[in-house]
Amino acid sequence: QVQLVESGGGLVQAGDSLRLSCEASGRTFSVQAMGWFRQAPGKEREFVARIGWSWSGSNTHYTDSVKGRFTISRDYAQNTVYLQMNSLKPDDTAVYYCAAKLDPILDQYDFWGPGTQVTVSS
C-alpha cells in the first residue's frame, strides 16, 4: 500500500502561483511514477502531469493546457512530489489529486490522495 497526502491548495487570483505538495508513505519503493490529476465541478477527472519515480528516471509529461505554466518535480529522499503552478487561470479551478503508478507499462494509477482544492478567481 502507498498512502498519499496532498497539501498547498487555496484561493488565489488569476495570474498568481501556487505550489502543491504530495507526500507519499508506505511501499514507495514499488512506485514507478507519480502523477497529478484534477477534477473541476461537473467535469471528469483529467490528467495534469506525471514524473518518473525511482529507477524509472524523472521524465516528465504534461497535458497541453498546462505546458509552460506548471512544473512537476520530486524530492525522492523526502518521498514528495510537487506541482508548481504559475500564471493560474480560472479554468485551473479544481480539486487536485496526487496519484501513484505501480505498473511500468499500463497507464493506470493505483493509489490516490484525498485531494486539495485550488480556486482561481478572475
Quantity of strands, as a count: 11
Distance between the termini: 40 Å
Shape: globular
Helix segment count?
0
Task: Give the strand content.
Answer: over 45%
Q: What string gives the helices and strands in order?
A: EEEEEEEEEEE
Largest sheet composition: 7 strands, mixed
**Share in helix:** under 10%
**Taking Cα atoms only, what radius of gyration do you get, to the nearest Å?**
14 Å
Mean pLDDT: 94
Q: Uncertain spans, ≥5 residues at pLDDT below 50?
A: none
Q: Which structural category fits the helices and strands?
A: mainly beta
Q: What's the quick description here?
A:
With 122 residues, the protein is mainly beta. The chain has strands spanning 2-7, 10-13, 18-26, 33-39, 46-52, 60-62, 70-75, 80-85, 94-101, 111-112, 116-121.
Write the layout of secondary structure elements.
Layout: E1 2-7, E2 10-13, E3 18-26, E4 33-39, E5 46-52, E6 60-62, E7 70-75, E8 80-85, E9 94-101, E10 111-112, E11 116-121
Parallel strand pairs: 2-11
Antiparallel strand pairs: 1-3, 3-8, 4-5, 4-9, 5-6, 7-8, 9-10, 9-11
Description:
The chain is mostly beta strands and 122 residues long. It contains no helices and 11 strands. A hairpin with a 6-residue loop joins strand 4 (33-39) and strand 5.
Quickly list its features.
122 residues, 0% helix, mainly beta, four-stranded antiparallel sheet, single chain, seven-stranded mixed sheet
